[in-house]
Amino acid sequence: MRTRSLSVAAAAVILALVQPGIATADDPSTTVTFTVTTGALSMSVPASASLGSGAPGTTISAPIGPCTVTDDRALLSASWTVTAAETDFANGSLTIPATSATYSPGTVTTTGTITVTTTNVTLSNSAQTVVTGSAGVGDNTASWDPTVAVDVPASAVGGAYTGTLTQSVA
């Protein structure tokens, strides 16, 4: 009987050594693994906005609606830059130059870990930095409701003027 007990104990030790991942009394541990998924850097902006109306020689301004950067890249050290560019405002063949407009990001609300800096700019046909994110860790978001203001020239002719504001994040 004693020989059988020793044989069963020896078989248990051999089985534990041969089968990886089975904890023994001498090593009661379990290795646990998982993967943190990553996503993309993206931006959402309003499809359209109306600044209202005003007479020649005045400034027409309004918030254009929420703009949001979503950084789902799950980086240890994340940064991003938002730029804005404006086309000239047109009413048929009549135009008001993009440089008659300004962009003011205003207050930024964030989630996660990100440091945000804003810059008020005079718009133009060339992209200019308006919001930057730095020192980001993991996933984060930043949202703001920028105000666009247009100084309407005293020589402006009445009518509806349309321009395209392009905001992008990289």
TrEMBL record:
Source organism (scientific name): Kitasatospora paranensis
Signal peptide: 1-25
This protein's UniProt keywords: Signal
Protein name, UniProt field: WxL domain-containing protein
UniProt KW Signal keyword: yes
